[in-house]
Amino acid sequence: MKAAHVGEAAARVREERLLALDRLGSHVRSLAVDFVLVAGDVFEDNGVDRSLVQAVADKASFFGVPVYIIPGNHDSLVPGSVWDHPAWKSARNVHVLRDERPVEVPGGVLFPCPLLAKRSSQDPTAWIPPGPGHSVRIGLAHGTVEGIRQDEPDYPISRQAAQRANLDYLALGHWHSTAVYADGGVPRMAYSGTHEPTGFGERDSGNVLLVKINPGQPPQIAPQANGGLKWLQIDDELRSAGDLAGLRARLEALDKPGSTLVNVRLFGLLAAADREELAHIADILKASRFLYSRLDTSHLYPSPQDDTWIEALPAGLLRDIAARLRDLSNPSFSGRRPEGGTPTVAARALLELYAVAAGVLR
Amino acid sequence: MILKSIKVAGWRCFANPLEIGPFEEGINIVHAPNATGKSTLFDAMVRALVDGHRIGGRDVEAIRPWGRNLAPTVSVEFTSGGTEYRITKRFLDRPFSRLERQEKGEYVPLAEGDAADERVRAIAMGSAPGRGLSKPEHWGPAQVLWAPQGELKLEKLSGNLLADIRTALGAQICGPASRLVEEKIDIMFGEVYTPTGKLKSGDKGAPVVRLQAALAEATRKRDDAVGLQVDFDAAARRVQELGTQRAEAAKELARVKKDMDEARVRAEEYRKLISDRDQRAERARAAGAEHSELRARIDSIRSVRNEIKNATESLEKLVADIAAVDQESAQREKEAAAARAALEELRGQRAAVDNAAALVNRARRFVACAGELSALADRLARVEAAKKTEEMLLKQRHDLSAPSESTLKAIRQAAEDLFKAKTSMESALLNLEILPETAGYLDIIKGEGAGVVSIEPGEPIHIKGTPEILVHLPGAGRIRAWGQAGNVEEWRRRKAEAEEELTRLTWAFGTTDVERLSELTQQGADLERKIGEAKKEAEVYLQGRTLEFLQQEKSRLETQLAELGSGHPEWSADPPDVTALESAAKEASDAFKVGIDAAESRRDRAVEAAAVSSKNKAVLEARREGEAKRLLKAEEEMSKLTVDGRSNVEREEELRKLALAWDGARASLEEAKKALEAYKDDPVATVQKLEKDHDRASSLERKLELDERDVLRDLRALTERGPYSLLAAAEEEVEKLRGEVAMEELRTGAIKLLHDVVGECKQEVLAGVVGPVEERATGLLRRIAGDRLGNLKMGMGFVPEGVVPGECDAPVMLEHMSGGEEEQVYLAVRLALAEVLAREERQLLVLDDALTYTDSYRLSRVLKILEEVSQHLQILILTCDRGRYLDLSNANLVPLEH
After folding, report:
1. Of A180, A256, B756, B760, which has fewest CB within 10 angstroms of its CB?
2. What was the ipTM of the complex prediction?
3. Which of 218-277 (B) contact A at CB < 8 A?
């Protein structure tokens, strides 16, 4: 289980994913569901530590209702897969569905579409026969619904898959954010998304879906928040002095910082007057309020039109140095650059100069 | 720093304590004769202010007075920053160091031992030497301010001093804030980089280096984890592949086994048919053999019988033929003997033919010898004639007296010289012509032909002379002629020499006429040419031989001719006709050869006929013997073939019965063969092939099963290690470190760039500072040496590089200057730098016997300058010649007296 490269917070992120299973169990019990469907990619890879497999199976065994799982593309059913682990046999309520064969479930029939390889251009739901609608028919598949941009076909699933197979509902897995698709005008297929957010940039992850199905009627799909951590990606472009004040206020206003991961990326031109504000933001992010924080200013350059960068320093040598560094930090500067004097390095050097000068002049 | 006094004891030449001072803040001149310790004082001051008191070694031992066990001791009183200090040091024996500070009019100890050394060194801005005595590079500002004896030249300023000078100069430009910022940046830089700009390594190294090392290690671990994950995926794929392959192999094995079982049944039936066919074939073969054997016996009896009959007939005929051949052979032998006798008779005629040939040869040699003798006589006659002509011409040449070409050339030259001398002499003489009107006499007083001559009216008289002509003409007076005449005597001498030379050259030829002499020379040349031609003609006929040789050759030919003509006296008058003799000899020879050839041919034919007849007889005898043996052998064979005792009829009947039995056996064999032909392949071979296929398929299936088991075991082992979890953790570590490295690299790079930019900017500022020092030094130099040396050129290290005189574009190096000018340049630079160093506090300038090459005129200018700079500097001059500094009116003269 990879933790999206968040340094020291990785252990907490992993822990939170297992805790999210406990929260899911609480939902199962409080909502009195008949069974749980897991549409693949329970694990990121078949090579995960077997103790993790055991822990997941143990937690699922406490749900108290049948749990139906299909192998996804990350944990496909191949020799040596996680599904060979004996924990699945001992968890009696957990059913790993290994064949494309209808399975009787409480109140209906389940058509599982387990994946036997990491990649394929075949629609995994293609095998489901369009049978009669005497009982509730549910599909359980893992793949990419047509229309989602992808470099090459990756278990493509037709948008009409549910209608074609005469399914009441098609539970989908693969993508991390919740998404519901209307098939024939009726929302009958949906990605629940991951039960716990896994990284920055995820639109709507950390949910599970409560689906109520009555024969002959459209399913009722209700997302239930299940995530424990908040992943916040902030990309701000600075254009004028004072732009950073809003960012600082936003960061200060965030609640549950201990469960929040923040990645701030700043672009554009930094006014000399905002130098202290930037230092303040850096301090806020460094002060360990947040579970994880990162501030990237490598694309932030001193504003070449802002002469206060120079005038703020005593006349003489320091101004010469500041002016030289400001020139070098301008990406369009065409003069001689010393070795290693890239705009990014020069911008940082200018900030270092100010930090030193501030200490001396204070 | 201002020097107040120096006290030494037990120091080189100062065995007794000596104190010198107090010194004034202006100019001080310590004067004393050579070798009285001026430089020793300077040395003691340096040791007191810079060196540690614990130093040892040979150099330090050398400061102890010769032959004395005294501990060198020095005490220096000085002022720095408005405070008075006294440093006292003893070296070598029980060394100590004590620094005192004057407080309320008394010296109070401030530091002792190493601390005192360090403290006084800090005041003097010097640095500790590594080992041994300090050198100028440890002296700090004193490198510039103190010039030891003979070391006025500035080689290279140490880093600290350079920084001090630059600091002093740049302080006004950079300002205190800049200096503090620069110091902090230097500290930041020093925490990360070495002085040479390389990242620091080790425990206290740059964080980026540690992070990069950690990243490299994490990357290695990540790569190991990737390898493990790849192995895991590959093992999983391999298990899958092997499973598929094993299923296919099992299917193939089942198919091959079914085919093999069917083929085995068929092969058994085939083997039985083969056995039956082989038995029938054996029976047929035995019947055939019996029939063939009898058939062969009957055929042999018939053949041998015919052989006996033929041999008998042939033997009889051969006996008759041998008798006829015997008779013919005797006749042929007789004919051969007759032919041999006829040939021998004809061969007796060969002597007459040989004699005719010898006569032809003798006649041919006689004719040739006669011709050769005639030609030789003609050559001899021509040679003798040419010799005679040569002798006659030689006599004529001997009689002719003519000059050679070279002599003639010398005669011509002498004649020309004579002519030129005559002409020139004539030109050099004055001419006087008198045309008398009456008769009388003329007295030539001066001129050629001096004396009295008579004169006649109308007859002009010519007189020549030089340098004047003086004549007396009675009744008329004296006439004197003069003018510009040449050197007649010289030309007269040359004329006499030319005449003498001409006479010497021509007396032998009886004439001095050059044309006649030229003709004689030509005549001589013609005669010599003809003599040469006659000689050449004789040589042509001699053809390299001598005349005597030709005459001897003629005698030999005459003798040979007489020998050849002996027996044929008529050949002397009438030479023999060789052609007719050859023709006659050839006819006789041809006739003899024809007769011999015919006789030999006849003999050969007769002999050959006799041989053939004899050979025929031998052949017939051999054939008769062979036929007799053949008959005997056939009779023996017949006895063997008929040993069964049966008749021919009985044998034919038996043969018929055997033929019927053989036909029956062959028919049975054909039936068996037809049964086997129903099989299109070899069922036994098919079984063997299928058995091999079965073994292969079985082995493959077994192998795949074992392989699958092995790979599955590996896969389980890999699974237990959780390769993906390891990889995920390793990647997270790599990414974490990568981010930290990037941030630290950015910070480290920024510090370096900041440091470099500070350096560059400061360098640019200071580049503008060197100018004023250079300008000040140039001004001082011009005041000392005038404008001739032009502008002084200094490097960034404040060391003079040369001067640029007005007429030059490039600087003139200092080593190309005179000793005096060179020391003046260095003095100017030292003074300019000393002024800089003394901006904040008066400093001590020491000149130990400097300016020894400077003339008194320039020295007086230097002294004026020293008086001026003494406003900011305390100047201590050590000299052995006090007189050179007498112009310094305000100087404090300090005699050095022991």
Report:
1. A256
2. 0.87
3. 229, 232-233, 235-237, 239-240, 243
